[in-house]
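Appendix C: a fully annotated inverse folding record. The material below is reproduced so that readers can follow the format used throughout the book. The structure is listed first as tokens, followed by the designed sequence.
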């Protein structure tokens, strides 16, 4: 007579020791990545140049004193993490206001047609590209439209 032998079902679980080993490796990896990132001299681009996390969409009233400099070619203002400039050719341009090296607020230099960092002297083109280091990351460039009727400038992504 044939014997029916039942085999024990395989458990689909990890041994406790194996589980702890895997968790330890994963946790250690996360800690290592955070440490390396914190200790690194490399640039970490600000994902929120405006600081709010929302998309940039601001309208500047050029009748206001705070925005008065934009009524003259060559003038610029810094607002909401954005530097808005009026070029000598009378076009409005806008880029993220913080230097990608260490976050210093940039200046606009109309004669040089660039954005300048006063801290370590990085230079960026009017389109936001790095022209001179130590910064290596480009600025965020924004769209700009102007409305002469309402005397406003809109900066948006
Ligand atoms: S902070 Fe701008 S070049 Fe260093």
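Designed amino acids, in order:
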């Amino acid at each position: 007579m044939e014997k029916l032998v039942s085999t024990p079902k395989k458990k689909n679980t990890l041994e406790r020791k194996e589980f702890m080993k895997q968790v330890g490796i994963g946790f250690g990896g996360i800690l290592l990545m955070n440490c390396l990132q914190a200790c690194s001299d490399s640039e970490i681009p600000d994902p929120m140049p405006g600081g709010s996390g929302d998309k940039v969409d601001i309208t500047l009233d050029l009748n206001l004193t705070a925005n008065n400099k934009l009524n003259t070619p060559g003038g610029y203002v810094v607002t909401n993490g954005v530097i808005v400039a009026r070029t000598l050719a009378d076009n409005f341009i806008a880029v993220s206001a913080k230097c990608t090296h260490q976050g210093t607020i940039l200046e606009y230099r109309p004669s040089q047609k660039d954005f300048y960092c006063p801290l370590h002297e990085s230079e960026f083109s009017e389109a936001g590209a790095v022209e001179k280091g130590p910064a290596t990351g480009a600025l965020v460039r924004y769209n700009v439209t102007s409305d002469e009727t309402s005397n406003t400038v809109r900066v948006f992504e």
